[in-house]
Amino acid sequence: MRHHVGWAIPLVALALLTACGVSLGDTHSCTLMDSPAGIGVEVTPELASRVVEATLIVCWDGTCQKRTLQLRRTSSAEPAAPGNPVMTTESATAAESPAARPPKTSEPPIWPAFAVMDDLPGKPVHVTLVLEDQRGATVLDRRISTTPQPTYPNGRNCSPGGHQASLTVTEEGALISR
Fold it and tell me: Is 125:146 a contact under the CB 8 Å cutoff?
């Protein structure tokens, strides 16, 4: 009788692990991590430095969504655009040595912009990107069709996150999908 009980415990443990969806060789687990749906836009620094206003319009199924993009980080003298948090590593109470200060430049650094669109589909969308200078003159007005792809923040074995597309404005002013 004692011999049969010795085999029963490992078999019960194996059955419980299998019932929970965990195999002995599987070390990857899916988390609740998600990734936002939206469109990333990267503009060459030469062009982005002249841009004050960047607007992205994305249309599908007869509806359009308009987003304002922030192509440059704002300096402490510039207010942040509404809905676009400014990321900083500076502390209000930290003492700063002159050697630790970054060199002053006339323009804040340029960074890729991202327009969050919660219901962005995984099918073709029509995108219009308009860039304007400080006088309100249009610097760039381009249209493109692209298909947002699902993201997998936890790996391909887990459920996908939001659909995303990436666009780049080249030095020649072309809008391309990456």
Answer: yes
